[in-house]
């Protein structure tokens, strides 16, 4: 006869799902892991005889902890230097993109209230029944249904009309890397949409575009300037294409020899959004996963 599972075994069975939930709620893997560790401590102190279903109970703990974190995170975002982007996750880990929430869609979730975000993630992404979601967020089921519906509308509006084939995404990422480094504005013009937007997250730790750059001509001028700076002070040679939060992109060393990720939203063969993460605090896991020594100089 098999022995009943221990508290540790039960929790470890669900740990990866809980980390995914917390990361989707918070946009930070470090915060997600802290939340799950806190949930683990609470689980250890729980009387299992009073738990009807461990998955629902653990999701409830993690969601409520995330909602608490989000209260302080909102105030931190208000004082964040420049654009804030979720911590990039490279898609060599096969679990992180199972829910099809790309970086673009995660930013759409950022515009929602914490309760809307929780309702959508639990119900639409993680398949938690509506009644359980209502119990988790301590709201009536009818209210939760409305929260999820509002969130779903925002996400659907942000969702691309079609999925970019991996080979096309890789080709465009490589073309952008080559053209942006050389200052080839004609090549850049051929792959950028008229309404292209660049968002760069340095977190005040390294040089980055403080404000989003809007429109083709402004983006071209920005990259012309960057290519001239690179010509005077070349960075280390690195280009590794990969999916970043479900979007085509690459890791590289760029101006001031800073390690960064670059990801692209692509529509009709043109780049519509460029997401650049340079904040070294958000890149440690990527560097470790790729066995890249050093994340670049962090001087201003």
Describe the overall structure.
There is one protein chain. The chain is an alpha+beta fold and 300 residues long. Among the domains are: 1-79, Rna Polymerase Sigma Factor, Chain: A; 166-289, Nuclear Transport Factor 2, Chain: A, CATH 3.10.450. It has eleven helices and six strands. The chain has helices at 7-26, 29-44, 54-78, 103-110, 114-125, 130-137, 141-158, 166-182, 185-191, 216-232, 284-289; strands spanning 192-201, 213-214, 239-244, 247-254, 258-267, 270-277. It has a six-stranded mixed sheet with strand order 2-1-6-5-4-3. Strand 4 (247-254) and strand 5 (258-267) form a beta hairpin. The longest helix has 25 residues, at 54-78. It is elongated, with a radius of gyration of 21 Å. Residues 92-97 and 295-300 have low confidence and may be disordered.
Question: In short, what is this structure?
Answer:
The chain is an alpha+beta fold. It is built from eleven helices and six strands.
Summarize the topology.
Elements: H1 7-26, H2 29-44, H3 54-78, H4 103-110, H5 114-125, H6 130-137, H7 141-158, H8 166-182, H9 185-191, E1 192-201, E2 213-214, H10 216-232, E3 239-244, E4 247-254, E5 258-267, E6 270-277, H11 284-289
Helix pairs in contact: 1-2, 1-3, 2-3, 3-5, 3-6, 4-7, 5-6, 5-7, 6-7, 8-9
């Amino acid at each position: 006869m098999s022995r009943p599972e221990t508290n540790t075994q039960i929790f470890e069975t669900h740990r990866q799902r809980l980390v995914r939930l917390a990361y989707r709620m918070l946009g930070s893997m470090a915060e997600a892991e802290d939340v799950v560790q806190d949930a683990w401590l609470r689980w250890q102190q729980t009387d299992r005889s009073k738990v009807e279903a461990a998955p629902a109970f653990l999701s409830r703990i993690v969601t409520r902890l995330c909602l608490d974190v989000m209260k302080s995170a909102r105030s931190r975002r208000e004082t964040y230097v420049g654009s804030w982007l979720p911590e990039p996750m490279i898609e060599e880990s096969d679990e992180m993109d199972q829910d099809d929430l790309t970086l673009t869609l995660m930013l759409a979730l950022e515009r929602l209230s914490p309760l809307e975000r929780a309702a959508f993630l639990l119900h639409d992404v993680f398949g938690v029944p509506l009644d359980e979601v209502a119990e988790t967020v301590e709201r009536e089921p009818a209210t939760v249904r409305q929260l999820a519906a509002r969130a779903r509308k925002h996400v659907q509006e942000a969702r691309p009309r079609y999925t970019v084939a991996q080979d096309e995404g890789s080709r465009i990422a490589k073309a952008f890397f080559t053209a942006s480094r050389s200052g080839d504005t004609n090549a850049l013009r051929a792959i950028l949409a008229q309404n292209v937007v660049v968002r760069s997250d340095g977190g005040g730790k390294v040089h980055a575009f403080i404000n989003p750059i809007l429109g083709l001509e402004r983006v071209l001028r920005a990259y012309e300037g960057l290519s001239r700076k690179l010509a005077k002070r070349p960075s280390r040679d690195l280009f590794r294409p990969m999916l970043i939060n479900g979007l085509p992109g690459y890791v590289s060393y760029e101006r001031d020899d800073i390690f960064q990720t670059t990801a692209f939203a692509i529509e009709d063969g043109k780049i519509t959004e460029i997401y650049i993460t340079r904040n070294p605090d958000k890149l440690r896991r990527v560097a470790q996963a790729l066995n890249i020594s050093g994340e670049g100089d962090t001087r201003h």
